């Protein structure tokens, strides 16, 4: 009887199979680690963005509060020190450079610039020693600020420019008293003093 031999493949060595499994596991671990790091970075960026938006909202609300305080400053009551400053035809208390430390009643009162940059672009409102009006200086209104807690780092501040009023029956009318509108520029701080917001309004006193 003739025997027929069929060729057969040798099974892979056990060590070779274990090496491939280990390599696959290591690759999966690397992929999972990369995904985990990416997720952590996305979460950190989202948290940082939310915190930045929160800080900016605090600064913006602080600046808006300064505009309200400036309106009280212009209209009263509680502004006896500057009651005559905002008379319809008064410009004597508004000076170049927005006042000085030696004349506290004039701090933050600015003559508008006839040429060049507007005054509000030349005054560094963030400078703690700048000739600006701080919240409550002339209105006796309180504002909670400081390093403790989630609140503005400093009180908001503002400057007021006396801008000629060109509305009919003001300085355009024959024989009419010269009148002014007030351009108020306010700066508010966030919990960190590097977070700042600037707002502006034009106010006409009745």
TrEMBL record:
Residue intervals of the PilX/PilW C-terminal domain: 108-205
Keyword Membrane carried by entry: yes
Type 4 fimbrial biogenesis protein PilX N-terminal domain: residues covered: 19-67
Alphabetic keyword roster: Membrane, Transmembrane, Transmembrane helix
Membrane-crossing residue ranges in chain numbering: 20-45
Record Pfam families: PilX (PF13681), PilX_N (PF14341)
Keyword field contains Repeat: no
InterPro entries reported for this sequence: PilX/PilW_C (IPR025205), PilX_N_dom (IPR025746)
Name of the protein in question: Pilus assembly protein
